[in-house]
Amino acid sequence: MPRFFRLPCLALASVLLAPAPSFAAAPARPNLLVILADDLGYADLGVHGGRDVPTPHLDALARSGVRFTHGYVSAPYCGPSRAGFFTGRYQTRFGAEFNARVGDESRLGLPLAERTIGDHLRAAGYATGLIGKWHLGFSPDRHPLARGFDEYFGFLVAMHNFILRADREPEFEAAYSRNLIYRGREVQRLDGYTTDLFTDEAIAFLRRQTSRPWFLCVAHNAVHTPLEVLKKYGDRVPAAITDPERRGYLSLLIGLDNNVGRLLGHLRESGQERNTLVCFFSDNGGAGQKPYLSYNTGRNAPLRGNKGQVLEGGNRVPFFLSWPGTLPAGGTYDEPVISLDIAATALAAAGRPIPPEMDGVNLLPWLRSEKSGAPHAALYWRLGPQRAIRAGQWKLVDWRDFAAKRQSGWQLYDLSRDVGEQDDLAARHPEIVARLSRDWENWNRGNIAPLWQGSSTEDPTAPEYRPQKTKKKR
Q1: What does the pLDDT look like over 315-366, one tens digit per residue?
Q2: What is the CATH number of domain 26-367?
Q3: If I label 293, which of 27, 78, 110, 363 is the partner at 20 to 30 A Cα–Cα?
Q4: Is the preceding peptide bond at 244 cis, omega within 30 degrees of 0?
Q5: Are 421 and 399 in contact (CB under 8 A)?
């Protein structure tokens, strides 16, 4: 059976007894939907073996298309990961290496010279919308409406309360002084629950699109902290789970799954399902290790590591692509891919050229068996002192041990037999270490220095930051 694409056993038997499958020609201008989760644990979805709570809608989305078993993001933190996704470029190319926090807003966030997937698709005649978390700048010229999106509803910063009350000023961490909900550029006072509200807004956006193809990114804050429990979701967490933090996380996951089902249900009911390319992924791995500010109990097993680390648990994420009738359903794709590929794939699906500066590639020819082999010769990561390269079965990694406050030095793992990165082979294969470290250095020459300093967990040279809760007036 080919390594690059597998079907479940029953489906494979059907294929062997039937003519080779053929897929309809892709629509010339399909709709494009990206659903983005925040800090989702790799092992918490049913399709990845999670059993604490059911995730039927996300599992169904995975089965409706292709599930990437080696799907990565370009950074294990929210902001730089999003910078990579939105541009299709390694964010270290343009200095967005760390989370944008507080400071000089003229320097923080996605550099103005970078074009987003929204810019490209709006220029191609698409209606473009962004709903939810941005985290790529706070100044007016870095607002989503200035970065390729016709419509925006959400928040600009790293984290937000889930439960909203219009009659109450929310409490925030001092680091997130602009923790407000906006419609366009106007602050909103709302009652509700963000995961539900974002889906309401997404469905409303889709209902307004009657004359043009559309691109919509729904960037949920679930399952990021704070672990606020809405009763209708919290009541569905099994009583046997008693850890209050884990219960909070699972209630957020139930809400996320429920709302993914609502949104995909609208696509079916409105007749848009077969004309819509849907992508789901998480911006990084689960934050299942204390003492992160955003510790959420997310589980990444059998992967090692967590959010913030360039180990597999920080960078390998749930990642699905579905396009009924155009892409095969029910299989897995086992070659490494990365979130940078989403922008290139979306542009190709829309019939647009892929800009030469993009590091991502169009995945459609591989998923339709028109190309063989791996889409990438290697994938790369840099986050402060952390470094990694994945080339075939090999991963060379220099990761940050936060508990010990030290770097590991180069370690080599054979992911084909050691997905948990337990058996360091560096001493046994010095020639592979030399080759891959040289490849990483060659790649790194195309990067620039970070444009701003990170937090102490991103950048050990940064001072410790312990924000105090405070109230901010609107």
Answers
A1: 999 999 999 999 999 999 999 999 999 999 999 999 999 999 999 999 999 9
A2: 3.40.720.10
A3: 110
A4: no
A5: no
